[in-house]
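hey so i finally got around to running the thing on that chain from the lab meeting. sorry it took forever, my laptop kept dying and i had to restart like 3 times. anyway pasting the input first so we r on the same page abt which one it is
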Amino acid sequence: MTDTLAPPKVPLDQVTGLRPLTDTTVCVDPQAAYAALRARWDGLPIAPVALADGVPAWLVMGYEHVRAVSRDDVRFARNPAHWRQYAEGRVPAGSGLAPMMFPRDNAYFADGERHARLRAPLVHGLAGLSEPRMARVVRATCDRLLARLPDTGEADLVAGYAQQVPMLTVAGLFGIDPDLSEVLQRCLIALFGSGDDSQAGNEELEDILARVLAAHRDRPGEDDLTTAFLNHPALRDDAEIVQSMVLMMSAGWETTTVWIGHTLRILLSAPRFAARLRGGRLGIDHALDEVLWLDPPMCNMPARYALCDTVIGGRHIAKGDPLILAFAAANADPAIRRDGEDWPVPGNRAHLAWGVGHHACPAQRAGWLIARTAVETALHRLPDARLAIEPRRIALQPSPWTRGPAQLPVLATRITDRQKESGHAA
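ok and heres what got predicted. didnt touch it at all, straight out
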């Protein structure tokens, strides 16, 4: 999608008055934040923003423009080596952006044949998973976590549940000791936060996974993903194996945690869902889809880098400029909505939450299974659960990329009863 008309050329590095990207994530109304960006910058679907450390980037907010950038391998690349500011040493080595935007030896940061090679082990590993077995494991994990909730009738369904289910599941898939769950979560929260502790969290994560890899080399597992990666001919050395583990673990945990948290939030607070819950028609699939439209797990996806000077969305983009794909903004793009139409339309899965093109998420089925099982089990085991605070007061986990609940305090008077019934009293 190339445009012939554009505002006067202004190099990204010289644009002033930039708002931080976190304005769109750490806020009550992200769509209002995206709308303000459009209005501030010529009404166009691509606006300049400041990333962590004040590093500038273009934020792509139009639905068709996100699709176009994602699918155009001629003009846009995923490899950060094409990022002009990074290549010129103008992004600090200690930047909090490093874990999410500096080069890594995995598929996320690769293009062309190298991307295909590094993606193959991920696709093959996921294809080898038994979905019925995985569903049983996830449900058992959910039951166990819910049985451990405090018997006071108060609980946090993020720290005690939404964060735990994906981590224990993903760690189990890699044959990682569940006792490492808490430290792995801490590392990943830091990584996605892109703050001062981001690099330290990433280094600790890589160290843990390197030790897991070494242990599996000495004593291979039977059907875990670590062993599968060790034996896959496409991965040529330990660095590629560890970084592929980082990719699957970070994407699998963060996105699924946010998805579960937001789905439970709207099911417990939105009147249109509350009626269905009371009537026995849970509407879980509708709620899961609605979150992918309104609060996709990755609101702002880093990054594509322009391979040439070009024009897109009416905006001049210079070679080497970084582009952040605003999935949350694109899903709500007025250009794709009909006047007077209820939105999002139940069953419509044309959202961009999974990405599009060669880099689309390969774990969609696994993510859906984990999220749906977690939400369904929580509603079944805690049928009278309700939010303990107003939805607008729910704290958000700081990150320029994701917009997930940091907590989800609920009241559920039947927690103790459900524990006794299941035989898993805390």
